[in-house]
Design a protein that fits this description.
With 382 residues, the protein is an alpha/beta fold. It has 11 helices and 15 strands. The strands form 3 sheets. It has a 6-stranded antiparallel sheet with strand order 2-1-4-5-6-7.
Length: 382
């Protein structure tokens, strides 16, 4: 993985909900906003970069997964219809700045093509496309330089870093019935989660599960321990030991865990991995409000230990109610006819007043809701 790399800025043009935005990316970023405002599509820009660079991925597959260039392009796009993604990164120990820029469109057969690609290292241009080779052989524009081993030699650490991005939105029902998820490595819904746990060195795995077990006792007080167990076929399972009237307690496997317990295990495990950026979508789903309030402190503690950059979206005021969470780390996404726009919560005067009064900026989430929220109680009335 690219050593000590961090995202510092993201620029999107004509990407999904966004006609044009440029935002700073801190070590922890929280996205808030109404439904369909673009939170998931904001995170998907990072997933797209991962799909470009990951083994078995690539440009054509990444675009196809999203329904083609037309499905990716913002509906509000007009003259400048090329889709563009640009990121700025910093290699912290060396202080080296990296930039990656990609523009994409399609031909008359709707085949995705590279319209523009640049890689810069400390403002020195390593790649600028299209180049003479691309003009001589246009088929080259069906692939990015990131995915070509013979082309990314000078910036392979950047490609490795993008490939290390991890997206997680565990669906408990798919973990209980993994055949429904489609399987595959790094499955974002958790279909391969137990295989990931089983693949970690035993000593490391046991240490992580002990820490997760202690954290889970806040939400599940009767849980005494959690470990990995294999059935007669060798299939890995998580099992928890619960206090019971039997002296030895009672063991249950993941099929019997609650949805909230499964999500917490997945969240804590992923946060403890010393990998690339972690993308979390609505981590509060299935969790008790008291547990949601505790999540920011838990994730912050793990992040200090692992150094992992974390970006998450949420609809939960409880998740933002921790007064130690910095207002500078929250971004509001506001939908509009001409595309969604982003506003740092620190620029919101009401949020600043609330903080000065001793309240968390969670109280200001109401300003990020639908403008006609007063009409919501009318839904279903005839």
């Amino acid at each position: 993985m690219g050593a000590n790399l961090r995202f510092r800025r993201l620029r999107l043009r004509n990407w999904r909900n966004f006609t044009g935005i440029e935002v700073s990316i801190p070590d922890r970023l929280c996205l808030i906003g109404p439904n369909a405002s673009g939170k998931s599509n904001f995170l998907d820009a990072f997933r797209f970069l991962r799909d470009l660079a990951a083994p078995g991925g690539g440009f054509q597959q990444a675009v196809a997964r999203r329904g083609g260039v037309s499905a990716i392009r913002c509906l509000a796009a007009r003259r400048q219809s090329v889709v563009e993604i640009g990121v700025e990164l910093i290699e912290e120990k060396a202080g080296i700045q990296w930039n990656y820029e990609l523009g994409l469109h399609h031909d008359r057969q709707r085949r995705p093509l590279i319209g523009r690609e640049r890689v810069l290292r400390d403002c020195v241009e390593l790649i600028k496309r299209p180049d003479d080779q691309d003009y001589a052989d246009p088929e080259r524009l069906t692939q990015t330089s990131l995915e070509q081993v013979n082309a990314n030699r000078d910036f392979r650490e950047l490609s490795a870093f993008l490939a290390s991005i991890r997206y997680l939105h565990i669906a408990p029902q798919l973990r209980r019935d993994p055949d429904r998820s489609g399987g595959g490595a790094n499955n974002p819904l958790g279909g391969d989660f137990l295989e990931q746990v089983a693949g970690v060195r035993e000593r490391t795995r046991n240490a992580r599960l002990r820490q997760i077990g202690k954290a889970l006792q806040m939400a599940v007080p009767q849980l005494e321990a959690i470990d990995l167990w294999r059935d007669s076929r060798g299939t890995p399972h998580l099992r928890g030991k619960y206090r019971h009237w039997r002296p030895q307690g009672a063991w249950q496997t993941e099929e019997q865990f609650s949805g909230g317990t499964l999500r917490l295990i997945g969240l804590f495990w992923s946060a403890m991995e010393k990998e690339g950026p972690l993308l979390l979508e609505e981590p509060e789903v299935s969790l008790h409000p008291g547990m949601v309030r505790a999540l920011p402190k838990m994730l912050a503690r793990v992040q200090r230990r692992t150094g992992r950059q974390t970006l998450l979206s949420t609809h939960s005021p409880e998740l933002l109610r921790d007064k130690r969470s910095a207002i500078q780390q929250t971004l509001v996404i506001i939908p509009g006819v001409e595309g969604a726009r982003t506003i740092p919560l620190e620029s919101n005067a009401k949020a600043r007043e609330l903080l000065e009064s001793g309240f968390s900026h969670a109280e200001d989430l109401t300003s990020a809701g639908p403008e006609q929220s007063g009409q919501r109680p009318l839904f279903g009335e005839g």
